[in-house]
């Protein structure tokens, strides 16, 4: 349940995906992902977070946003596999 009163950053965590504050047990901490132009910077940040165990370098995602992310990832990969399969079938029948 999102926090409706004034959040306390020492107790609550902010989910950047849905822009709400939550209790710590209503989500998960994860290391930032490496991607894009800032991949070297993200890699250094991940290494520093893993080495020091500093939670301030980690991101928080609520369970609802985590479930949506997993579903979107599953749909993305399913569509990609379907496109590749259709392309292979078209190639096999000489239509591509």
Name a few traits of the molecule.
96 residues, alpha+beta, two-stranded antiparallel ribbon
What does the model show?
- This protein is α+β, with helices and mostly antiparallel strands.
- It has one domain (12-92).
- The chain is 46% helix and 17% strand.
- The protein has helices at residues 39-52, 63-92, and strands at 12-15, 20-23, 27-30, 59-62.
- The chain has a two-stranded antiparallel sheet.
- The model has no long low-confidence stretch (mean pLDDT 89).
Mean of the pLDDT scores?
89
- Tally of domains: 1
Runs with pLDDT <50, length 5+? none
Number of helices, where a helix is a run of at least 4 consecutive DSSP H or I residues: 2
Question: N-to-C SSE series?
Answer: EEEHEH
Instruction: For the largest sheet, list the strands in their spatial order.
Output: 1-2
Name the structural class: alpha+beta
> What characteristic shape results from the CA principal axes?
elongated
Report helical residue fraction: 40-55%
How far apart are the termini? 52 Å
What summary fits the major beta sheet?
2 strands, antiparallel
Count of distinct strands: 4
CA-atom Rg in angstroms: 19 Å
- Proportion of residues in extended strands: 15-25%
Short recap of the structure:
With 96 residues, the chain is an alpha+beta fold. Helix content is 46%, strand content 17%.
């Amino acid at each position: 349940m999102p926090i409706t009163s004034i959040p306390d950053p020492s107790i609550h965590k902010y989910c950047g995906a849905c822009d709400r504050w939550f209790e710590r047990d209503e989500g998960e901490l994860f290391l930032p992902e490496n991607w894009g132009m800032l991949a070297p910077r993200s890699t250094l940040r991940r290494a520093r977070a893993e080495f020091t165990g500093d939670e301030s370098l980690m991101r928080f995602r609520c369970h609802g946003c985590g479930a949506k992310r997993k579903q979107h990832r599953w749909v993305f990969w399913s569509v990609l596999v379907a496109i590749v399969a259709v392309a292979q079938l078209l190639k096999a029948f000489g239509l591509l």
